[in-house]
């Protein structure tokens, strides 16, 4: 099919199909790429399914690699790009609820039957320009429905990851989950625990940073998948923050918003003044810390994602006290890498009277940004040594103090900074920064 608008990736996949067909094989595009094209979406990747055995595929293409030998999947490189070429197969005997005990090469019909949902079970012959539908996938695409192929309970029992895949596709495509399929998901939800946390984490991360994170979370909660996915009690929480976050958010922002909606929103101290900030802030930070540790394990977050989530949450209540913060503190907050996520979640918080504060932060943020929120420090540890101070634990505190003075515009040169230190920060003196734990 020489379509002028054809994407390069599709063009390469079609070349693979053509080569196979020219050698007398049945070969189709398969699964998600067929579904997405029929929906007018740009497929993430293209998969090819064929009756050629893996050995045959390796003979026909110069650059290949076995990736899933047991499943008959060969990686074929076309113009340097990898494509999965899978031999039609049947699978059975899923004793462990994760993967089949037996695989046998078969035909397109049987291959469609082993796939998870009808909309994922379609083939396309791009040469004959024909859709091959053994499972009623086209009707369900038109009706915008996620329906298990075959008997839903049995299909989820084969591979419990499909419980999450159903939710991901419903959220990603904005489809409904067909009632029998949804019923089977709810019944099997506790079995999700049998799937590895890596695979659970990948599905969860994909749906929460996808186009409809709030819909994904709503479905997870209503089907009882939130408990096994997050390793905590089931909860049907309203999701005002997550709903306002919008499409395709950063994962950390999505998790932060969902954490607030499920657990933390009531703990936020609205309108807290500087003086009484420490208590509520520490309580909030403790609750956030426990939650982040749990979610890290449940979703296999990286250390970086965990830290970003913790800082994002810990910063939120401080933003409520923005007017009481020193300029140095404001600049330090803005200079943190988590600031964009944090401010995005803050913009979605549903707390009365917050709009004026949000505008103030916005306006002042622009001004501070222009001034410079993270200038190079005027003084370093070496400067302190040169002035006769002894290296020790006090060093970093002194440097913090003088950097604050720099951020506030109190000192503008190295000499001013040294003078300021002599004057303001005698040994043992100097005010303790009014920052709560975890914010420096
Ligand atoms: P995406 O847009 O996320 O890539 P996809 O439908 O292409 O969606 P993949 O995970 O890339 O999903 O898998 C490709 C195809 O393999 C699916 O369309 C489906 O037919 C089949 N498949 C994948 N995972 C499973 C599974 N766990 N159980 C049954 N079939 C599956
Ligand atoms: Mg895919």
Describe this structure as you would to a colleague.
The chain is an alpha+beta fold. The protein folds into 4 domains: 8-143, Beta Polymerase, domain 2 (2-Layer Sandwich), CATH 3.30.460.10; 148-236, Hydrophobic Seed Protein; 249-373, no CATH class; 381-439, no CATH class. 52% of the residues lie in helices and 10% in strands. The protein has 21 helices and 11 strands. It has helices at 8-22, 32-38, 54-60, 108-114, 137-143, 152-158, 161-173, 179-188, 197-208, 213-222, 226-230, 240-244, 251-264, 278-299, 303-320, 327-335, 339-348, 354-371, 381-386, 394-407, 414-424, and strands at 27-30, 47-50, 64-68, 73-78, 81-87, 89-92, 102-105, 122-125, 130-133, 145-146, 176-177. The protein has a 7-stranded mixed sheet with strand order 3-4-5-2-1-8-9, with helices on both faces. Helix 7 (161-173) runs parallel beside helix 9 and helix 7 (161-173) packs across helix 10. The termini are far apart. 39% of the residues are buried. Residues 434-440 have low confidence and may be disordered. The structure holds adenosine-5'-triphosphate (ATP) and magnesium ion (MG).
Major β-sheet, in short? 7 strands, mixed
Query: Roughly how many Å apart are the termini?
Result: 59 Å
Number of separate helices: 21
Radius of gyration: 28 Å
**CATH class (first level) name of the largest domain:** Alpha Beta
Q: What ligands can be seen in this structure?
A: adenosine-5'-triphosphate, magnesium ion
What global shape is seen?
elongated
Percent of residues in helices comes to: 40-55%
């Amino acid at each position: 099919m020489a379509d002028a608008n054809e994407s390069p990736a599709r063009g390469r996949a079609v070349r693979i199909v053509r080569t196979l067909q020219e050698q007398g094989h049945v070969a189709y595009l398969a699964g998600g790429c067929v579904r997405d094209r029929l929906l007018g979406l740009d497929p993430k990747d293209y998969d090819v399914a064929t009756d050629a055995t893996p050995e045959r595929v390796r003979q026909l293409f110069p650059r290949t690699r076995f990736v899933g030998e047991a499943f008959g999947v060969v990686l074929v490189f076309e113009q340097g790009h990898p494509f999965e070429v899978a031999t039609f197969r049947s699978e059975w005997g899923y004793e462990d609820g994760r993967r089949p005990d037996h695989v046998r090469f078969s035909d397109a019909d049987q291959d469609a039957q082993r796939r998870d949902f009808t909309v994922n079970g379609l083939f396309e012959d791009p040469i004959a320009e024909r859709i091959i539908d053994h499972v009623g996938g086209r009707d369900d695409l038109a009706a915008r429905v996620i329906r298990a192929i075959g008997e839903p309970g049995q299909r989820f029992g084969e591979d419990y990851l499909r419980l999450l895949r159903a939710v991901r596709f419903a959220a990603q495509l904005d489809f409904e989950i067909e009632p029998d399929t949804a019923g089977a998901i709810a019944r099997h939800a506790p079995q999700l625990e049998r799937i590895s946390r890596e695979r659970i984490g990948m599905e969860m991360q994909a749906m929460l940073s996808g186009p409809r994170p709030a819909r994904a979370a709503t479905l997870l909660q209503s089907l009882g998948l939130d408990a096994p996915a997050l390793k905590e009690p089931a909860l049907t929480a309203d999701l005002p923050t997550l709903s306002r976050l919008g499409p395709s958010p950063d994962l950390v922002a999505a998790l932060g918003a969902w954490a607030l909606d499920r657990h933390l929103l009531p703990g936020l101290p609205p309108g807290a003044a500087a003086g009484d900030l420490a208590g509520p802030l520490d309580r909030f930070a403790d609750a956030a810390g426990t939650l982040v540790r749990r979610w890290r394990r449940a979703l296999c977050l990286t250390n970086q994602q965990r830290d970003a989530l913790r800082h994002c949450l810990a910063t939120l209540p401080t933003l409520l006290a923005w007017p009481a913060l020193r300029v140095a503190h404001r600049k330090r907050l803005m200079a943190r890498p988590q600031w964009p996520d944090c401010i995005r979640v803050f913009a979605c918080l549903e707390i009365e009277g917050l709009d004026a504060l949000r505008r103030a932060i916005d306006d002042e943020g622009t001004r501070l940004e222009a001034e410079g929120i993270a200038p190079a420090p005027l003084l370093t540890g070496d400067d302190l040594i040169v002035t006769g101070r002894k290296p020790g634990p006090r060093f970093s505190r002194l440097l913090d103090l003088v950097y604050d003075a720099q951020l506030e515009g109190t000192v503008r040169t190295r000499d001013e900074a040294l003078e300021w230190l002599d004057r303001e920060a005698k040994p043992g003196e100097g005010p303790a920064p009014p920052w709560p734990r975890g914010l420096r």
